[in-house]
Write a structure and sequence with these properties.
Elements (H helix, E strand, L loop, with lengths): L12 H34 L2 H29 L1 H18 L6 H15 L2 H12 L2 H33 L3 H21 L11 H8 L12 H4 L3 H11 L2 H19 L7 H27 L4 H16 L11 H29 L5 H30 L3 H9 L2 H12 L10
Helix pairs in contact: 1-5, 1-6, 1-7, 1-11, 2-3, 2-4, 2-15, 3-4, 3-5, 3-7, 5-6, 5-14, 5-15, 6-12, 6-14, 10-14, 10-15, 10-17, 11-14, 11-15, 12-13, 12-14, 13-14, 13-17, 15-16
Length: 425
């Protein structure tokens, strides 16, 4: 029984979502820079499609290792200091790109960025689990995950302005690193767990903790998680979807450049359109499953039906390479990107549904490692296909990425048909 029903609760948890949103915006602005600058750097530095594939996969390989380790570190250090450490390191790594002089230099800088940026989602999802009850988590996740699209929106707008103002692409990386340092100041001032925060009252704490099951034998170890179906359900759910997002991130601008001949300044409008629509998709996907739960539907039904709808909306993207209209191509990519963000909001929330708060970062890290390894293979495969087939290779790539989500929801349902949460690790 809530003993503070007459006390009006604070709503500081939405300030926490804002902090996560801005961190994710900076995170994606940093990682999206390479995809936008690729045509310019390819001319200035000089690399082949295969070498660009190596640059992309080096980031992803480091990201895969990073997520495996950083989730464990965040669960041990706690969200406040674990997230702060990750942002500090990725800000430094971003600025180091300015010193690169060859594709190998960029690959090394991407390794540093991948290792440190891996901390964003394990820390953010753990924060959501700490600060939100289950009925609000998908919506809150959709909101903060919208930062990934805002970062992608800002990149094509700001990059030409920064280059025009400072005269060099190097300043793009330097300023992006400074953004992370700026965010870090606010994080350290404002963030703590709900019970330790000076900005919450007991009514909000009771609301956050409502209905949380007691969990026994909590020990942070991703190795112990491997024996549970829940771990593999979220890992495979991300494996069949995340490489698709990597494809949009690293080859979206290159596809539009090669297919329609648009340059760096002209990329802003189509890319902004794609990621604005994607942003709404993520918020809508989180809102739909949260609304279904509030209407009395089970968590199992609410998450899965929303993810199935998302999977179906991705299918038309396979036709993109066959259109000569850039408007239609951009529209279909935007629809698929929105569906991905809806899926992402829900698969991240499924982690908080299935795992106790104490191991959420570890579980998120492991699942992201699995999906990122898939992204590495995707990057190498796409680089090889485009190197051999030219723009015709995009037909194969878009056909493959359109099917991943349907496979993912089938695998999730087979592994966790009732989505029972773990009570012992």
């Amino acid at each position: 029984m809530n003993n503070h029903q007459n006390l009006k609760k604070t709503n500081f948890r939405w300030v926490i979502v804002a902090l996560l949103f801005f961190a994710t915006t900076v995170n994606y602005f940093d990682r999206f820079l390479m995809g936008i600058l690729a045509p310019l750097l390819e001319t200035e530095i000089g690399w082949t499609e295969m070498e660009y594939g190596y640059i992309v996969s080096s980031f992803q390989f480091a990201y895969a290792i990073g997520t495996l380790l950083v989730g464990y570190v965040i669960d041990r250090l706690g969200t406040r200091w674990g997230f702060a450490l990750a942002v500090s390191l990725w800000s430094i790594a971003s600025m180091l790109h300015a010193a690169a002089r060859s594709w190998i230099g960029f690959a090394l800088a991407r390794v540093g960025l991948g290792l440190s940026e891996a901390g964003n989602f394990p820390a953010a999802i753990k924060t959501i689990a700490e600060w939100f009850p289950k009925k609000e988590r998908a919506f809150a996740t959709g909101l903060f995950n919208g930062g990934s699209n805002v970062g992608a929106i800002l990149a094509p707008i700001l990059i030409p302005l920064i280059i025009a103002s400072f005269g060099s692409w190097k300043w793009v990386f330097i300023l992006s690193g400074l953004l992370g340092i700026f965010w870090l100041i606010f994080w350290l001032i404002l963030y703590n767990t709900p019970r330790q925060s000076r900005f919450t009252n007991q009514a909000e704490i009771d609301f956050i903790e409502d209905g949380e099951p007691e969990v026994d034998n909590i020990k942070v170890s991703w190795v112990k998680l491997l024996k549970h179906r829940q771990t593999w359900a979220v890992a495979f759910g991300k494996l069949f979807a995340d490489p698709v997002w990597w494809f949009y991130l690293f080859w979206g601008a290159k596809f539009l450049h090669s297919k329609f001949g648009i340059d760096l300044k002209e990329l802003a409008l189509p890319l902004v359109s794609i990621y604005v629509i994607a942003d709404f998709g993520g918020i809508a996907g989180g809102a739909i499953s949260s609304w279904l739960i509030k209407k009395g539907k089970s968590v199992n039904y609410s998450r899965k039906i929303t993810m199935l709808g998302s999977a179906l909306l991705v299918l038309p993207v396979m036709t993109v390479p066959y259109y000569s209209s850039m408007t239609i191509s951009v529209g279909l990519i935007a629809l698929a990107a929105a569906a991905h963000c809806s899926w992402s909001a829900n698969i991240f929330t499924v982690i908080t549904d299935l795992f106790p708060k104490q191991v959420v970062a570890t579980a998120t890290g492991f699942a992201t490692t699995v999906s990122t390894l898939g992204g590495i293979l995707m990057a190498l495969l796409v680089g090889y296909i485009l190197n051999e087939e030219g723009t015709e290779g995009y037909k194969i790539a878009f056909a493959v990425i359109s099917c991943g989500y349907l496979i993912g929801i089938v695998v999730i349902h087979l592994l966790v048909p009732k989505m029972k949460p773990l009570t012992k690790i």
